[in-house]
Amino acid sequence: MAAYGSDVWGSGYGMGWWVDRENGRITDGGLYGTVPWLDLEDGYGAYLVVEADSPTGNALAGLLYEVVEGAVAGRSG
Length: 77
Fold this sequence. Notes:
The protein is of the alpha+beta class. The protein has a domain at 21-73. Helices cover 26% and strands 26% of the residues. The protein has 1 helix and 5 strands; from the N terminus they run βββββα. A 5-stranded antiparallel β-sheet has the order 1-2-3-4-5, with helices on one face.
């Protein structure tokens, strides 16, 4: 997926989403910590709902990315 816009921490911004150029994860964290993300390659999306602040939500999402990706990879087809 092509990503255009300013580079922030290895991410591009386009169509309202941050695109991580390293792993292709698409995210757009909210003001109060909610973090949705999409993984188009593996065909799933996730939505972390947090009522806190952006740094807290992003930290929790960072801890959950691998857990969710592992669960999706281990699903039976």
